[in-house]
Write a structure and sequence with these properties.
- The complex is a heterodimer of chains A (about 260) and B (about 270).
- With about 260 residues, chain A is mainly α.
- Chain A folds into two domains: about 1-55, no CATH class; about 55-260, MetI-like fold (Orthogonal Bundle), CATH 1.10.3720.
- Chain A has helices at about 1-5, 15-35, 40-55, 60-95, 100-115, 120-130, 135-160, 165-170, 175-210, 220-225, 230-260.
- In chain A, α9 packs antiparallel against α11 (about 230-260).
- Chain B is an all-alpha fold.
- Chain B has a single domain, classed as MetI-like fold, CATH 1.10.3720.10.
- Chain B has helices at about 1-15, 25-45, 50-65, 80-105, 115-130, 135-145, 150-170, 175-185, 190-225, 230-240, 245-270.
- In chain B, α4 runs parallel beside α7.
- The radius of gyration of chain B is 27 Å and the shape is extended.
- Chain B starts with a helix and ends with a helix.
- In chain B, about 40% of the residues are buried.
- The model of chain B is unreliable at about 1-10 (pLDDT under 50).
- Classes of the chains: A mainly alpha (about 260), B mainly alpha (about 270).
- The interface between A and B is large, with 62 and 66 residues.
Chain lengths: ~260, ~270
């Protein structure tokens, strides 16, 4: 009880208690609305164990013949999407920097904020009928939805640079374009490439999911194996995905650390 | 030009001209070659072609024309699924937020009770983060059946992955003087956490939980694509029958809801930190 006294404020109900109570009531209402009863919750662990037992042993033959190509396709989608986004976002990042282009920056930031609001899977729903079922639609969706975030992060990097070199180039008679080339780009490139790599890590996960709406990659394979209750095959999908994503995360993380050092 | 250079060389004797930083050409060319090779391999693999894109654009315009204006009359039927979507997000955030506390504490290098626990927990976190939210949704839909409960469970796992990673980093950055003082005064490990460590990082915890809630609202919109409840299930049926005016309406209402939640959450988070 003494510990309680130390936690609680001197008198009345504190902020923390009020917020906790609010969240607890909200939670109970929501749980009641979707029929998440305590009995159902208590039943979950045993249910999960039963289902998990179906996943063993993983069907690695299926993994080699069907999952591996789909996984490679997911990587290709993520890479192309990142390349598209990198190419489009580099000029936008420069234009979106308040310190360089005060007049256009606001407009560019507005556009990038709108692009960020769309989850890639919603974009893919529109791209699939336009360019047909398959990986190309996925790469476009990933590319477009990454432009927003990369533009925002890139502009922030550009805004944080030392303006000395820019002024020096211009004082020496260099044009604005030369200032960008010799004073801005060399300062921002390492950090911007690090952001590209980070986005590539995120895009791997995003592209893995796109198969659900028919935009290529490993997501469609997982959906099908689970739909037909081929749990050993689904296990192969999960194992290979985890492995590949872990390896890419580690490689990309190592490169990013080197770039930013 | 020549006398200018002579002058600078004279200066060199007094103060040597700074060396131009050496470029590691082997590394730069190697990286460029790797990027080009990877791009070529990817572009070929997915059939990337600008010509095809240009040829297909007219068809795309037809789709866009067809999908506008949205079918506003459909809106009343979206209200219940939208509400369910928010409920899924709340449940996932609350349960996931609670489960993330011990996982983050054990993964913080300065607080963890043992190296082995730290190692196991940290790798557990990394594996959790590799799978995207929709994969969890598919798994739970297969395990507990289609519906909102599968979605709530998927978001629970996703929330744990997000909060535990971010918060364990804030916990590692706290001032260790207070926790050490609690230990020195004879406090237990739990007391050290409760009075020394967690209060310092509590604003971060609340901030990350709100951030996870934003992500969850966004994710819960699409969970239904794989049968895990919410507005996504309506989206999936309308999409598969190519009712694009209705798809547009759903996408618009999802965006508006996401933006509203983000604004509220961001204004709270700004005040916290």
């Amino acid at each position: 009880m003494t510990t309680r006294a130390a936690w609680a404020p001197a008198s009345g109900m504190g902020w923390g208690t009020r917020v906790t109570l609010f969240v607890a009531i909200l939670f109970l209402l929501c749980a009641w609305a979707i029929d998440l009863t305590p009995a159902a919750l208590a039943d979950l662990p045993s249910q999960m164990v039963t289902v998990l037992s179906f996943f063993y042993p993983a069907d690695m033959a299926y993994g080699a013949t069907r999952v591996w190509p789909a996984l490679l396709e997911s990587i290709q989608i993520a890479w192309m999407g990142t390349i598209i986004a990198a190419v489009l976002s580099l000029p936008l990042a420069l234009l979106g920097a308040r310190t360089l282009f005060p007049r256009i920056a606001r407009l560019v930031k507005l556009i990038s904020a709108t692009a960020r609001a769309f989850p890639e899977i919603l974009l893919a729903i529109y791209f699939v009928p336009i360019v047909g079922l398959g990986a190309f639609a996925g790469a476009l969706a990933i590319g477009i939805s990454s432009v927003g975030m990369l533009t925002k992060l890139g502009s922030e990097v550009v805004e944080s640079i030392d303006m000395g070199p820019v002024e020096a180039v211009q004082a020496a008679g260099g044009s604005r374009l030369l200032a960008l080339r010799y004073a801005v780009i060399p300062q921002v490139l390492p950090e911007i490439i690090a952001h590209w790599l980070f986005r590539f890590e995120l895009n791997i996960r995003a592209s893995a999911v796109l198969g659900v709406v028919g935009a290529g990659g490993v997501g469609g394979v997982l959906l099908n194996t689970l739909r037909y209750r081929h749990f050993e095959k689904a296990a192969a999908v999960l194992l290979l995905t985890i492995l590949v994503v872990l390896i890419i995360d580690m490689a990309s993380g190592a490169i990013r650390r080197r770039l930013l050092r | 030009m020549s006398h200018l250079r002579d002058e600078s060389e004279e200066h060199d004797t007094a103060a040597p001209r700074p060396l131009r930083p050496a470029r590691n050409w082997a590394l730069i060319l190697g990286a460029a070659a790797a990027v080009i090779l990877m791009t070529w391999w990817s572009a070929r693999g997915i059939g990337f072609s600008l010509v095809e894109l240009a040829c297909n654009l007219p068809g795309g315009r037809r789709l866009l024309v067809e999908s506008w204006p949205p079918d506003w009359g459909f809106f009343p039927r979206l209200l219940a699924p939208l509400l369910e979507t928010l409920q899924i997000a709340v449940i996932g955030t609350v349960i996931g937020g609670l489960l993330a506390i011990p996982i983050a504490v054990l993964a913080a290098r300065n607080l963890t009770p043992g190296v082995l626990v730290w190692f196991v927990d940290r790798n557990f976190m990394n594996v959790l983060r590799t799978l995207p939210d929709l994969f969890w949704a598919m798994l739970f839909a297969a395990a507990v059946g289609f519906g909102p409960i599968a979605g709530a469970l998927a978001l629970t796992v996703f929330t744990v992955a997000v909060i535990s990673k971010l918060w364990s980093e804030s916990l590692e950055a706290i001032d260790m003087a207070v926790p050490e003082a609690v230990r020195a005064a004879g406090g237990s490990w739990l007391a050290m956490l409760q009075f020394g460590a967690i209060p310092q990082a509590l604003p971060h915890y609340v901030s990350y939980t709100l951030y996870a809630f934003e992500l969850n609202v966004r994710a819960s919109m699409i969970l239904g694509l794989v049968g895990a409840g919410g507005i996504g299930m309506v989206l999936e049926t309308q999409r598969s029958t190519f009712e694009y005016p209705r798809v547009t309406l759903i996408v618009l209402s999802v965006l508006v809801l996401v933006l509203i939640i983000e604004q509220i959450s961001e204004s709270i988070r700004r005040r916290l930190t």
